[in-house]
Design goal:
Blueprint (H helix, E strand, L loop, with lengths): L1 E5 L4 H10 L6 E6 L8 H4 L11 E2 L3 H7 L2 E4 L6 H11 L3 E3 L9 H8 L6 H6 L1 E2 L2 H4 L8 E3 L3 H15 L9 E6 L14 H4 L4 E3 L7 H10 L7 E6 L6 E8 L6 H11 L6 E3 L17 E8 L4 E8 L7 H11 L16
Parallel strand pairs: 1-2, 1-4, 2-3, 4-5, 5-7, 6-7, 8-10, 12-13
Antiparallel strand pairs: 8-11, 9-10, 11-14, 13-14
Length: 344
């Protein structure tokens, strides 16, 4: 299957290249950019010298539909809302890594993202897929909307409780921390070395654009209340840790809680539930498509603590996009993704 990557010079694009250059079923046919056409990819990313001998091409939907079987959009928010309809009209299969088509309510998108939403008819065509929760809707689709990084970690952490309908409404608090690569390559005062090094800071307090995405999915699983969701930057390159707090209806023991999670994810290759009393760290999933989860129950207060970690560029972006592509084309879901985390 011939693959095109739009936004190949970004971090998400670089991870797609890393995965797909050794994928057993996909072949990288073309790399596209809006600003660096005509340059070899190794001129931007020297680590790809001798590995991907491709020149960056301009974005031409008609030509892209002829040259590729599937196109990944790893572009900044706002660009996909214009580009995806053109590609789909030209006949491309599109997997979008941006947030432009995740929210079904256009008013929510415009409120949280502070920009005009994509046309409603195209939003309705997009299939939102966090594979462990939505994979049955992917096959036969032409257009997949890949989940956000924070929502992936949060939703995988909460899904067993939400699906079991035992989460007390209004009780969910999500404390999320991310490495700086989530901000991409755009330079700002907040992500330069002297500001981030030896520092920990909260940002977008009560205003992160991933809040409605998490709430949208939780509502589909039966949890109706708004959530409290706060995000922080930590001085590391990659990784997300979400520490999630919630209260259950009635009582649950730690053994029962662990069994619930173990059973829910028993057949999921990319979700690893830790043994009781063991909690994951971001380094233990670095550069991989795994989501590792640790859980605890405070029987004194009735509150649950869930720790969910992912690599924001992998399970939070490129890895999950390839996982969705594998499902879409009927390949083994883990094809091209069965590599161990990078450690130390």
């Amino acid at each position: 299957m011939r693959v095109g990557i739009v936004g190949a010079t970004g971090y998400g694009g670089a991870e797609l290249i890393r995965i797909l250059q050794s994928h057993p079923k996909f072949e990288i046919a073309a790399l596209y950019t809006s600003s660096r056409q005509g340059r070899d990819i190794h001129n931007h990313y020297p680590h790809l010298t001798g590995i991907i001998p491709l020149t960056l091409e301009e974005i031409d939907p008609i030509k892209m539909a002829k040259d590729t079987d599937v196109v990944f959009l790893a572009v900044p928010t706002g660009i996909a809302s214009q580009l995806a309809p053109e590609l789909l009209t030209a006949g491309c299969v599109v997997i979008d890594l941006t947030g432009d088509f995740r929210l079904k309510n256009t008013e929510d998108y415009e409120y949280w993202y502070k920009r005009k939403a994509a046309p409603k008819e195209w939003i309705e065509k997009a299939v939102y897929s966090l594979p462990e929760l939505n994979r049955t809707s992917v096959k036969g689709s032409q257009f997949i909307s890949n989940p956000g990084c924070y929502p992936t970690a949060a939703l995988l952490g909460l899904a067993p409780l939400a699906k079991a309908n035992i989460l007390k409404e209004g009780s969910v608090i999500i404390d999320a921390k991310s490495g700086i690569s989530g901000a991409g390559q755009t330079v700002s005062l907040g992500n330069i070395y002297s500001e981030l090094n030896e520092n920990l800071k909260i940002y977008k307090v009560n205003g992160h654009q991933h809040i409605p995405e998490i709430e949208q999915m939780l509502k589909e699983m039966g949890y109706e209340s708004p959530i409290t969701f706060q995000t922080h930057l930590v001085p590391m390159t990659r990784g997300i840790m979400t520490t999630i707090y919630g209260t259950v209806e009635g009582k649950i023991t730690e053994d029962e809680l662990w069994q619930l999670y173990h059973d829910f994810y028993a057949n999921e290759y990319f979700v690893r539930v830790r043994d009781k009393g063991i909690f994951p760290a971001t380094k233990e999933v670095a550069a991989s498509n795994f989501c590792d989860i640790g859980i605890a129950c405070d029987e004194r207060t009735g509150r649950i603590t869930i720790v969910s970690v992912i690599d924001n560029l992998m399970k939070g972006a490129a890895g999950q996009a390839v996982q969705n592509a594998n499902i879409l084309f009927g390949f083994e879901e883990s094809a091209g993704l069965k590599f161990s985390p990078m450690y130390p």
